[in-house]
Design brief:
It contains 11 helices and 8 strands. It is of the alpha/beta class and 300 residues long. Helix 3 packs across helix 5 and helix 5 crosses helix 8.
Length: 300
């Protein structure tokens, strides 16, 4: 990060990066980054720095994902994400729930927002944030420009893919062993329950995928909010067919969906192996979002 826009820790795991320059028209004012599980700041910085070059007028809110988030209660998840909610309030992205927060408004009443979620870890935090703020309005009668990037998600990689996702950031071999046992047991239990009781009960991943395909997964989204899937056929954690199936369901629901498929990049490594295609796809996504909202404003 440059000295002119230092990264500020809002809490353990949530950070704010101030804009490097004054925002200009047709660029996002806020960029929400939800990391993959165990993603380190040094890895996230590569994405954050590129976003800073592309959209220097944007304020970035960076949310790290840890395995414990999946096992936490809804109350614990809410506490973890509260600093991100407060930052969105202060930046004008949400209607504040307290009078004190109103004095912190420093940007347009409904700033444009680009949301980027990596893997199931980031997608889970995104949907949880949406559930927390689902009752909030936005401070304007017209929806702001917004767009959603789903990077290497969502999907169910089975027991082995889930083990890789949860254990990749754990160095303690004993803890890794416990994680492997618990995940295999959970998959076995769910499979057995469905066979014996012919149950179609939804798993955590099922609920997350369904939530992602809701029109208002975040309060400022609607059907015209464009969605970009960045994924690879070589991903060993999330099967690419699962991602494509999710995108197809979104299309059937009337969403504006674009797919950018890579053929040789590992999980959440598409930007590293195909930087030009990767960032060009995101820029096209944002340009289409701005153009779509402009047309809506001209022809209400």
């Amino acid at each position: 990060m440059t000295s002119s826009n230092k990264l500020h820790a809002l809490s353990k795991g949530i950070y704010l990066l101030n804009p490097a320059k004054t925002a200009i028209a047709n660029e996002p004012k806020i960029i929400l980054l939800f990391s993959w599980m165990g993603g380190r700041l040094t890895h996230l910085a590569k994405y954050s720095n590129t976003y800073n070059e592309l959209y220097p007028g944007a304020t970035q809110i960076i949310v790290r994902s840890e395995p414990s988030f999946f096992w936490s209660s809804q109350a614990s998840r809410k506490r973890y994400l509260e600093p991100a909610v407060e930052a969105l309030e202060a930046l004008g992205g949400l209607v504040p729930v307290s009078k004190t927060a109103k004095s912190a408004l420093s940007m347009d009443p409904s700033p444009s927002i680009l949301v980027h979620a990596f893997s199931n870890g980031g997608a889970s935090q995104l949907t949880t944030l949406g559930e927390i703020i689902s009752s909030r309005g936005i401070p304007s009668s017209s929806l702001p420009v917004s767009a959603l990037v789903l990077d290497s998600c969502p999907g169910d990689g089975g027991a082995e893919g889930t083990i890789l996702a949860f254990s990749s950031s754990v160095s303690n071999p004993l803890v890794r062993g416990i994680i492997k046992f618990l995940i295999r047991f959970l998959y076995f239990y769910v499979s057995l329950q469905r066979k014996i009781f012919r149950s179609s009960s939804e798993t955590v991943l099922d609920k997350m995928k369904a939530r992602l395909n809701e029109q208002r997964v975040l309060p400022w989204f609607d059907k015209s909010t464009p969605r970009l899937y960045l994924y690879s056929t070589a991903d060993k954690l999330i099967p690419y067919r699962e991602i494509e199936a999710h995108a197809q369901r979104g299309k059937q629901s009337g969403f504006t969906v674009t797919l950018e498929r890579f053929d040789n990049s590992p999980h959440v490594a598409h930007a590293k192996m195909h930087p030009e295609r990767y960032w060009a796809a995101i820029q096209r996504l944002w340009d289409s979002a701005a153009e779509s909202r402009s047309q809506t404003a001209d022809h209400p």
